[in-house]
């Protein structure tokens, strides 16, 4: 293979031919991350474009040297034979190109699954005092393609990046999925998805409907921007309550404008209201058959009307209607300790009846070891 820069139109056209790809690998995401230099790359097998990568270049302080970051990518056929045995064909020219662009290291996040745990396994693990981590449980399924990719990355000198709680340096290694299609790939209907949920989730969805909670989703950038300030106000409220640092309003405005310009149905904002009061709000993203719950907010008041359950259910229904086969609730930590504060979020997601999914994680290839070490020390002190 060879790797070279391509224009954003060719990049987006290739993404459109794929069943799914991470939204972090779309050209639009490069515009969202405006503080990083962006580049669209193509992987070519002879004249044929067979893969793409959105590369974000993060500069070292005071030096024109960069970490080349490929979040949840590159977009390649990771299930193919070459990915199972000849990954160097793609990664060596990728590293060579990034080095020529001034990179001291490359970070990738292969979107391949290495293990899965059912909702029941996770629930039982939380109840079992002898289980502290997800990895203490034998997975329901191991991904052979993921295992082959991990083995090759190690052989090629790539270094896995992990931090406490199962979160990698950039994106979470553990996510929670709800499957919207059967093992044969046929789409499920709404009743089948509801049946996978636990009794509490189904009860809460009914309770929200009975209480008169109204959920609506936007279409296109104009509608999304019209409710963005309301979403952000509730999001800031949620951040204060749950003790995390919120992103500024401008970040979400850029996200909506960039992603909606790329595809009108790429991003949607959802609001759940009770008697006119905003009780929950979310942002959903979809690329092909993969739909994500990206950001969420909820009111401390009126929690008993279950707006969060209602808005999630509407997002799932719309993902189903759009042909998605996966509804992705994004990251979870790997802890199953009942006393850990993160367990509440895991339990909320487990109620959907989905599955915990382990990705291969993020991997670094140092290209200049001295600069890479300096960058690692700088990041550790932040």
UniProtKB/TrEMBL annotation:
Keyword Nucleotide-binding attached: no
GO annotation (BP), single: cell wall organization
Entry annotated with the keyword Membrane: no
InterPro entries (alphabetical): Acyl_CoA_acyltransferase, FEMABX, PG_Glycine_Bridge_Synth
Keywords: Acyltransferase, Cell shape, Cell wall biogenesis/degradation, Peptidoglycan synthesis, Transferase
GO molecular function terms attached to this record: aminoacyltransferase activity
PANTHER family in alphabetical order: LIPID II:GLYCINE GLYCYLTRANSFERASE (PTHR36174)
Similarity comment: family membership: Belongs to the FemABX family.
Protein name (Swiss-Prot/TrEMBL): Peptidoglycan bridge formation glycyltransferase FemA/FemB family protein
Originating organism: Nocardioides acrostichi
Organism classification: Bacteria, Bacillati, Actinomycetota, Actinomycetes, Propionibacteriales
């Amino acid at each position: 293979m060879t790797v070279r820069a391509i224009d954003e139109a060719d990049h987006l056209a290739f993404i459109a031919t794929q069943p799914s790809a991470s939204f972090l690998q779309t050209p639009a995401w490069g515009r969202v991350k405006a503080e990083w230099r962006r580049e669209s790359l193509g992987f070519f097998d002879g004249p044929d474009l067979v893969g793409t990568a959105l590369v974000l270049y993060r500069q070292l302080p005071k030096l024109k040297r960069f970490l080349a970051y490929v979040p949840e990518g590159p977009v390649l056929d990771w299930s193919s034979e070459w990915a199972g045995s000849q990954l160097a064909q793609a990664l060596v020219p990728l590293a060579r190109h990034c080095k020529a662009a001034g990179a001291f290291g490359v970070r990738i996040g292969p979107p391949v699954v290495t293990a899965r745990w059912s909702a029941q396994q996770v629930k039982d693990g939380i109840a079992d005092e002898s289980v502290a981590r997800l990895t203490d449980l034998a997975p329901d399924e191991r991904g052979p393609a993921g295992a082959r990719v991990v083995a090759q990355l190690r052989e090629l000198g790539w270094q896995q990046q992990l931090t406490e709680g199962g979160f990698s340096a950039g994106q979470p290694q553990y996510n929670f999925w709800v499957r919207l299609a059967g093992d044969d790939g046929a789409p499920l209907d709404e009743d089948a998805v509801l049946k996978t949920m636990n009794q509490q989730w189904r009860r809460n969805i009914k309770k929200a409907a009975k209480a008169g909670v109204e959920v609506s989703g936007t279409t296109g950038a104009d509608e999304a921007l019209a409710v963005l300030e309301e979403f952000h106000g509730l999001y800031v409220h949620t951040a204060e309550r749950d003790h995390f640092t919120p992103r500024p309003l401008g970040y979400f405005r850029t996200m909506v404008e960039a992603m909606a310009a790329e595809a009108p149905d790429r991003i949607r904002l959802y609001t759940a209201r009770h008697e006119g009061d905003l009780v929950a709000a979310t942002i959903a993203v979809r690329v092909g058959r993969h739909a994500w719950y990206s950001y969420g907010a909820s009111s401390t008041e009126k929690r008993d009307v279950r707006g969060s359950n209602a808005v999630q259910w509407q997002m799932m229904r719309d993902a189903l209607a759009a042909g998605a086969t996966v509804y992705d609730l994004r990251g979870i930590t790997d802890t199953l300790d009942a006393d850990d504060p993160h367990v509440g979020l895991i339990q909320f997601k487990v109620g959907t009846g989905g599955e915990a999914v382990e990705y291969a994680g993020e991997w670094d290839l140092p290209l200049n070891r001295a600069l890479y070490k300096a960058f690692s020390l700088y990041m550790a002190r932040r």
